[in-house]
Amino acid sequence: MPLAVDPTSLMDLSTSRRLHEAVSVALGLGVFKGLRNAKTSDELAGELILDSEATYYLLKLLVQTGCLTETEGKFCTTSLADVYLCDDSYLYLGHEFETGGTFSQQLLRALLPASVHDTPEPDWNRERLRQIGVFGLMGSIQSTVAGCDLSETRRLLDLGGGHGFYSIAFAQKYPGLKITLFDLPHIANLAESFVQQFALQEQIVLRGGNFLTDDIGCGYDAVLCANVLHSNKRDIVLGKVRQALNPGGQIIVKTRIGDAPENLVNADTKLLWQARGGRELFSFAEWQGFLESHGFRNAKQTGLSGIYATIVALAGE
Known about the structure:
Layout: H1 8-29, H2 31-34, H3 41-48, H4 52-64, E1 68-71, E2 74-77, H5 79-84, H6 102-111, H7 126-136, H8 140-146, E3 155-159, H9 165-173, E4 178-183, H10 185-197, E5 204-208, E6 220-226, H11 233-244, E7 245-256, H12 264-275, H13 284-293, E8 296-305, E9 308-315
Parallel strand pairs: 3-4, 3-6, 4-5, 6-7
Antiparallel strand pairs: 1-2, 7-9, 8-9
Helix pairs in contact: 1-6, 3-4, 4-12, 6-12, 8-9
């Protein structure tokens, strides 16, 4: 699904806003004053009574902004932060970072242990699905479609397919491909309107159900698991996918990975994931292990868009 107009400049503005709010939160919590002497993220989290994992990803982002350095696992302020972001400096600029945006609130909830709680199931509606799908079209979906060869595939299962944009993109690229999009009944009903918008009803079938407890079908040549293999779901779903695939069929895993290249955009995305309640960021090698333990072989990373990796593996004979 190529985009007619490049949205990069707008996405850069969105990233800049989150960077501004991240610096604001760090100022309010005393992060810069606390790191005038080098400390590990765990040491700082202990001193400030913060969540260790969220603190780590905040500090990694601040390294990318030039406010901190990291040496052998310890973080310390740079001269930039010492001069402009410590409130006992004559040139303190903290007043330029006063904010109370949504991301600041999410980040504070992730950082402050007293506010840590299980993320409730979101209120799924058509607009929320559309927003998630459009965000994926900024490059992540295209990376997955480009990284998979389905030229010999007849039947694809899009498990937990949500907004349906992956199914739509694969259907557009492979006109002979038959796709089943499986998700909770009310979500599948919402996705149907997107499929109709692209006039792909003959190629994409919507099926409602709970993939953790219901039968997902069998005889598939490929199964797509895009951002659904979380926590306790992973073992259940991988086992069911293995049974649903034909011998030699392929599983396509779309997931966030922890060992993506270190840069500003990836550090921002990782922190955003933490702020929104995400906790798992496994390496590609760890994903290989998960897949091998469930009978998949030859796992390869075939696409990477930011921290979103596409991993393809084959079902054993």
